[in-house]
Amino acid sequence: MFAALGVPYQLLPVPPGCFDETVRALGAAGFGGANVTIPHKEAALGLADDPTERATAIGAANTLTFADGAVAADNTDAPGFIRSLPRSPAGATALILGAGGSARAVAWALRDAGAAEVRIWNRTPRRAEELAGEMGLEAVREGGPADLLINCTAVGLGGGSAERSGDLKLLPVAADDLDEYACVVDLVYRPGGTDLELAARERGIPTVDGLEVLVQQGALSYEIWTGRAPDRAAMRRAAQNFDAPTIPSSGRR
Ligand code: NAP
């Protein structure tokens, strides 16, 4: 989208120790804003002069806007996730797998969108209990039927279409149980599909992949900065064709 506008956009790997001073310098150097990703989202919220209520409630920001020497911060992961769904989750039931950063944004988004029931499972149950307690949701120790199943764990980066890796064994949902869900969302993106996505698709269950969630959160950041309607189809195509550059490790100079 920025290439189409002729506006420069660049990737900037930043070691955690330099995050605050780098972000402050970006605004002073004339940058309009920044998309922030792992592991800086909490720090991005922490340094913001003007965070939205949503970013504060989630505890993380992924969109920074620089204006008049101040840093505004928002979280578009939550509304981006909602927009990626085939229909509104209002009144729906949901099972979230995971209790890390993305699970926090998804749990908040579902509650905010009026989901009737949100359950959280995590490999480390204590973290699911903490997140559920904080958001007024329910922590569970096993799977079970729901309208939406959302994988917010890191499980899924292995496997794929050519070779199933047995990733589902790490989750509380067996392939044969997937009929208990009306829609399966996998925040992890893997070209060809994650094991979870492939198993759901084989059973004819609608799926949403991590690339769609990525595109939707980026589209909303673009809208915040430019005030223009994003061309999501163009963004989707660009994301599918993106050849990620090698990022030097944060320890290297
Ligand atoms: P995070 O904060 O590091 O959380 C990782 C989560 O994965 C934790 O719940 C962790 O459980 C669980 N986990 C890790 N290894 C596991 C295993 N072998 N078996 C079961 N559970 C395991 O990461 P995050 O920011 O939430 O991101 C999670 C994934 O979502 C990432 O891999 C990323 O690919 C994807 N993501 C996609 C988007 C998008 O736009 N599509 C956005 C954000 C994230 P424990 O608590 O037990 O360690």
The helix/strand class is alpha/beta
Strand count, sense and barrel status of the largest sheet are: 6 strands, parallel
Measured by DSSP, the beta-strand proportion falls in 15-25%
- H/E topology pattern: HHEHEHEEHEHEHEEEHEHH
Task: Give the C-alpha Rg.
Answer: 18 Å
Round the mean pLDDT to the nearest integer and report it.
92
Gap between N and C termini, in Å?
A: 30 Å
Based on CA inertia axes, which overall geometry fits? globular
Number of strands: 10
Bound molecules: NADP nicotinamide-adenine-dinucleotide phosphate
Low-pLDDT segments, ≥5 res: none
How many H/I helical runs? 10
Strand order of the largest sheet: 7-6-5-8-9-10
| Approximate helicity band | 25-40%
Concise summary:
The chain is built from ten helices and ten strands. It has 253 residues and is of the alpha/beta class. Bound molecules: NADP nicotinamide-adenine-dinucleotide phosphate.
Write up this protein.
The protein has 253 residues and is α/β, with parallel strands linked by helices. Helix content is 37%, strand content 16%. The protein is built from ten helices and ten strands. It has helices at residues 2-5, 19-28, 41-47, 53-58, 77-84, 101-112, 125-135, 195-202, 210-226, 232-241, and strands at 33-35, 50-51, 63-67, 70-74, 93-97, 117-121, 138-139, 146-151, 181-186, 207-208. The strands form two sheets. Strands 7-6-5-8-9-10 form a six-stranded parallel β-sheet, sandwiched between helices. Strands 1-3-4-2 form a four-stranded mixed β-sheet, sandwiched between helices. α8 links the parallel β9 (181-186) and β10 (207-208). α5 packs across α6 (101-112) and α9 packs across α10. The longest helix has 17 residues, at 210-226. It is globular, with a radius of gyration of 18 Å.
